[in-house]
Amino acid sequence: MPEAKPAAKKAPAGKDAAAKPAPKEAPPQEAPAAPSTEAPPEDQSPTAEEPTGVFLKKPDSVSVENGKDTVIVAKLNGKELPAKPAVKWFKGKWLELGSKSGARFSFKESHDAASNVYTVELHITKVVLGDRGDYRIEVKAKDFCDSCAFNIDVESPRQDSAGQSLESFKRSSEAKSDTAGELDFSGLLKKRRASMRGLPSSMASPTSGAC
Prior knowledge:
It contains four helices and nine strands. By secondary structure, the protein is of the alpha+beta class. Strands 2-9-8-4-5 form a five-stranded mixed sheet, with no helix packed on it. The termini are far apart. It comes from Cyprinus carpio (Common carp). Keywords: Repeat. This is Immunoglobulin I-set domain-containing protein. One of its GO terms (cellular component) is M band. Pfam families: I-set.
């Protein structure tokens, strides 16, 4: 009879547990924060950048109706200037506007000491079609020099479909209304004299006894 093999000895449960440490649990990962969609408060809203350089306000290009007045305004930053500026206005590149340009052109300058801002103005009264074109303002102060260009466009008077100026039509219609209902006596007298010339003398000069 074959001999029975001895059963394998099992290791104590406690020793196996000590030999194999339990795996550590990974710490839970935090989900990335979603970007905020809330609008920033009004006091924290981004503000527009302040203009830099000597021109705080550049002269605007304008379109003016013929016969109307216009004013071109520019503001200069005195903090960027080494001294009081000398301002000149030009039409085109070299035609300087000044006291000799005529009574329609005038110039105005003012200085705000608190903000150190210079305000310069070009006034043109009763603009004509010849004023249309490119202009330039030039600023000089010691060794400093800067300029800025702008344009003035002059519109001709409005016209109807027949090409007649509405303004002239209005004036002619007003003149006709003043004389409406009046007879042209000079024309009537001329017609009467012409008709009497073809009649015999006896008919042209009535007798004393005629009624």
